[in-house]
Specification:
This protein has 424 residues and is of the alpha/beta class. The protein has two domains: 140 residues, FAD/NAD(P)-binding domain; 210 residues, 3-Layer(bba) Sandwich (FAD/NAD(P)-binding domain), CATH 3.50.50.100. The chain contains eleven helices and 24 strands. Helix 1 links the parallel strand 1 and strand 2. Helix 5 packs antiparallel against helix 6.
Length: 424
């Protein structure tokens, strides 16, 4: 390796970090170290299908070392961020200290519980593969305990599922669970006749799919209502104590499963100047994603807050497409900088928004056009297979989806090594 090689440390192997690393490793003047707490990249938009036992975790994940095994200038370091030291150009992880010429922060966001400690302690998040598997175990265990119980009140508590958050994740989870109740629970749990009516979708806003079009919002409510999901709007969750979800209007819902899909907050980055931390802990960056009041630290994706894009003066939405585009743009800009060329300001191209509601039912807000129903479902299917890493993953997922949708009978409802405390 040349002596003037620039060391680049990338913290986070999500959409932003992966796309940045893939682009930059084409330039051999950079030596890249990718750091992540897991040894695999995964596809967050499909976590809910893992959580509802529709697909396997391996369908949406891929090992970093396999991904970059033929890249001579890229190394993987498994570890979690501890703190950044801008003065010494080092970053500390729980498995070692790395030095850098450029530091790229792409650690994304985590679940936002809005300061409700009881919800944080007892609700079920869905941000990681571990969360999804824990949720799957939890829901399946509740079904088993429900059919064993002779106490009607306990049976209801086990069957009730409350989903907090009416965004794409909440809507997709509600639809998938309703389908599970409609096609699977009735066959495999003859003691349970109406699982759909035990699903509650609760949101603080007056509409579902708030960021999407009115057509998408109306379609989501129509389809979920038809499936039997009980939708509660304009009513945030205020607490979750003693197995009861407490709503802002005073109503309570007894349940052993509160799925929290109500918001995210950027992950904390110790060591970054306080002047560079904005609302929601997002790092303030310039037009090139460089963190304010630093010289060689960049932030991408959900972690960054950029107001220089004329079309998004209040910052970009925290979406996968923003992260992907920022990662690729920054990699090209670092190459330009090394070539003595000026960097290009980031500008987000909005390709549209998609959300699946149930079997063959989805919504698609594309530039200048809106689709719903089967056509939107096909668009959603295509859009979620193409970004998956690895041909094998695409092929497996396409086959599994086809088989599961045709038979209405996926076979992944396995309770794998649940924690003892889950079986209560």
């Amino acid at each position: 390796m040349e002596t003037n090689t620039k060391k680049v440390v990338v913290i986070g192997g999500g959409f932003a970090g992966i796309n940045f690393a893939k682009q930059l490793c084409k330039d051999k003047r950079f030596q890249i170290t990718l750091v992540d707490r897991n040894n695999y990249h995964f596809f967050p938009p499909l976590l809910y299908q893992v959580a509802t036992a529709f697909i396997e975790p391996s369908n949406i994940s891929y090992p970093f070392r396999r991904m970059f095994q033929d890249k001579s200038n890229l190394r993987f370091h498994m570890g979690s961020l501890v703190k950044v030291d801008p003065q010494n150009n080092t970053v500390e992880t729980d498995t070692g200290i790395l030095d850098y010429d450029y530091l790229v922060l792409a650690i994304g966001a985590e679940t936002n519980y809005f300061g409700i400690e009881s919800v944080k302690q007892n609700a079920l998040p869905m941000k990681t593969i571990d969360d999804a598997l824990n949720l799957r175990n939890h829901l399946l265990l509740n079904l088993e305990k429900a059919v064993q119980s002779n106490d009607p009140a306990e049976k209801v508590r086990r069957l009730n599922i409350v989903i907090a958050g009416g965004g794409p994740t909440g809507v997709e989870v509600a639809g998938m669970l309703a389908e599970l109740g409609r096609y699977i629970a009735a066959k495999e749990y003859p003691e349970i006749k109406d699982l759909q009516s035990h699903i509650y979708l609760v949101d603080a806003s007056p509409v579902l799919l708030g960021p999407m079009s009115k057509g998408s919002q109306e379609e989501a409510k129509k389809v979920l209502s038809k499936l039997g999901v009980q939708i509660i709007q304009n009513t945030p969750v205020k607490d979750y104590v003693d197995g009861k979800v407490v709503l802002a209007d005073g109503r309570t819902i007894e349940t052993k499963a509160l799925i929290w899909a109500s918001g995210i907050i950027a992950r904390e980055v110790p060591g970054i100047p306080a002047t560079a931390v904005g609302k929601g802990r997002r790092l303030l960056v310039d037009a090139y994603n460089k963190v304010n009041d630093t010289t060689n630290i960049y932030a991408l994706g959900d972690l960054s807050f950029q107001t220089t894009d004329p079309n998004y003066p209040n910052g970009h939405p925290q979406l996968a497409q923003v992260a992907i585009q920022q990662g690729k743009t920054l990699a090209k800009n670092l190459t330009r900088s090394l070539d003595g060329e000026p960097m290009k300001a980031f500008s987000y191209y909005n390709k549209g928004s998609l959300a699946i509601i149930s079997k063959y039912k989805a919504v698609a807000d594309l530039p200048k056009v809106f689709f719903k129903g089967f056509i939107a479902w096909c668009i959603w299917l295509f859009a979620h297979i193409i970004p998956l890493v690895g041909f094998r993953n695409r092929l497996k997922l396409a086959f599994n989806w086809f088989w599961s949708f045709m038979t209405n009978n996926p076979t992944l409802r396995l309770i794998i090594r649940p924690r003892k405390e889950d079986f209560k």
